[in-house]
Design a protein that fits this description.
By secondary structure, the protein is an alpha+beta fold. The protein is built from 17 helices and eight strands. Among the domains are: 179 residues, no CATH class; 81 residues, no CATH class. It is globular and about 80 Å long.
Length: 551
């Protein structure tokens, strides 16, 4: 391949990476955590204060709740298994009609159970939204509002990300065979970082291509569904599962005539062997288009959503109405679209795939971080030297170094502190969800401001230690809940919640190692490197501008 073409692709790879790198760091880091969204939700959930109800008594519970509040018939759910983040056996939501579809603050949550006298006890629930908040950061690359325009921004970033991947492969093609596993460890730290960047990038290339392409589909999936409906389903697909308003002339159906939940579950399992239901979602049960969605997973099939898929049944007859979203029973066109979601959300393969995605997500975040730092270092190498004086760093290099350090480490610290603060907010003020945005963005913006005020080298070590403390606060909060019950904290003893604490502890250890290694580099780095603080460089050399890494 001609060298001029390689240079063009190198420029494309460099600038697409720089333009999207920090946004993609947030998307990948938050996305890696989102792989374990349910354990995070369980860790942050306050202890349930409502009794469970056996599934055999669910018909009585439904009848009592609907008698107390007939509007619940529009949409309610029965949970088939207990977990910390599920406040009770029967739940429903009421959305403010003037609220945005993406605004979780416009949703009120309710939970119901049976009291000792067999009567319905309805309470307002306040489930933690911290896991959903991290998911939103992932979906809209750290922007503060979950909206369609911000998701479209993510789509544009993902498209540029794809371009960066393709151009990076083209750049490496001439030396791919020779340098594929070349990781030259030595005094030339810049060369080692570049080798590590290339090796990690090539090894994880299939994962990154999947993430890039599926992210584009995810950002624009509403439009894709519209086109699919019109081309393949004559515009009827959307209305097949749409909740229709009940006409005033339509007869009101008696929910007492619905099949018991156990019978509905048996019908779903008989229709799809291997399908394991987790939730019954009832909709419009008093109207002519009553439906119950039996949600669940099939370990041997692709799920259309992270939480699985569903079969739509008639709650009165048990007849399967629709299986377009049932794992293992999807049509080819639906399976094609669902595969994009499954590949993006690790909705297949169980725990092994989830851990693989988690580690690859963290590695991907490091790629974007290291890519920006390598670009900054390349600017230093090209600086002219006159008379032995240390040349002044370019302004764009200094600004990008500060932005990279502030944004990336601010994201890590902000997410960790937000997770830990959730329990403290419940204990101190009650409404933990109101503090999600303030805690995260105060930490994030504070880190960015610190990086620009101090410069990359002087800011990076304190910011790394801030990330250590914030991440360590997660298991420490659980420990304090056990050691000091008077603090009104809690610590769940389930394996998923313990796993969150142990993973955070390991993450804090890794960040502490990074902080110590970075501090050493700041002290010992060349004075004209962006990783040098310009104070403790080599004897006899002038103080240089703060900067990046390696020589």
């Amino acid at each position: 391949m001609r060298s001029e073409f390689v240079r063009i692709y190198k420029v494309v790879h460099t600038w697409t990476g720089i333009l999207t790198g920090m946004a993609l760091f947030i998307a990948f880091y938050a996305g890696a955590l989102t792989v374990f969204k349910e354990p995070l939700a369980r860790w942050a959930a306050p202890p349930a204060m409502i009794d469970t109800v056996p599934l055999t008594e669910a018909p009585q519970l439904i009848a009592r709740v609907l008698a107390a509040d007939p509007t619940v018939a529009r949409d309610f759910s029965l949970h088939l298994a207990d977990a910390e983040h599920r406040p009770g056996p029967m739940t429903w939501e009421v959305r403010d009609p003037d609220g945005d579809d993406h605004d979780e603050s416009a949703v009120r949550h309710y939970v119901a159970t049976l009291d000792g006298a067999g009567q319905a006890r309805i309470e307002t629930a306040h489930p933690s939204r911290v896991a959903s908040f991290i998911d939103v950061l992932h979906r809209v690359v750290g922007l503060p509002v979950d909206s369609d325009p911000n998701r479209w921004v993510m789509g544009v970033v993902a498209a540029l990300y794809t371009l960066a991947l393709v151009s990076g492969v083209v750049v490496l093609l001439p030396s791919l065979v020779k340098d594929f596993f070349a990781l030259r460890v030595g005094k030339n730290l810049k060369r080692m970082w570049l080798d590590a960047h290339n090796v990690v990038g090539i090894v994880s290339l299939p994962f990154h291509l999947v993430m890039a392409l599926t992210a584009v589909v995810f950002a624009y999936h509403d439009g894709i569904y519209v086109v699919q409906d019109r081309l393949l389903h004559d515009g009827k697909w959307a209305t097949a599962l749409q909740r229709q308003p009940v006409s005033a002339a339509a007869p009101v159906r008696d929910p007492a005539g619905m099949l018991p939940p156990l019978e509905l579950l048996a019908r779903a399992r008989a229709f799809a062997p291997g399908f394991e239901p987790t939730l019954l979602q009832y909709q419009q049960v008093t109207g002519p288009r009553a439906v119950v969605r039996v949600w669940g997973k099939d370990a041997a099939a692709v799920s259309p959503r992270a939480r699985g898929g569903f079969a739509a049944l008639d709650p009165y007859t048990g007849k399967v109405i629709n299986s377009d979203f049932l794992p293992g029973r999807q049509s080819t066109p639906n399976l094609f679209v669902s595969s994009f979601f499954a590949l993006h959300m690790a909705a297949f393969g169980g725990a092994a795939v989830q851990w693989m995605y988690f580690l690859l997500g963290l590695a991907g975040a490091w790629l974007f971080y290291s890519g920006n730092l390598l670009w900054v270092e390349s600017r230093r190498r090209k600086l002219p030297r006159q008379g032995g004086d240390v040349p002044e760093q370019r302004r764009d290099a200094r600004l990008l170094a500060a932005a990279t350090v502030g944004v990336c480490l601010g994201c890590v610290s902000g997410i960790s502190l937000t997770i830990a603060a959730t329990r403290w907010a419940y204990a101190l003020v009650g409404d933990a969800n109101a503090w999600l945005l303030p805690v995260y963005y105060a930490t994030f913006l504070g880190a960015v401001a610190w990086a620009f005020l101090r410069g990359a080298a002087r800011a990076v070590v304190p910011l790394l230690w801030l990330a250590v403390i914030a991440t360590l606060a997660i298991p420490l909060t659980s420990g304090l809940a056990v050691l000091a019950p008077g603090l009104k904290l809690w610590a769940h003893s389930s394996l998923p919640c313990i796993g969150v604490d142990l993973t955070a502890l390991a993450g804090a250890g890794a960040l502490a190692w990074m902080a110590r290694a970075t501090a050493h580099r700041v002290r010992q780095g060349a004075p004209d490197s962006v990783w040098s603080d310009g104070v403790s460089g080599r004897p006899g050399e002038s103080r240089g501008e703060v900067g990046l890494q390696g020589r």
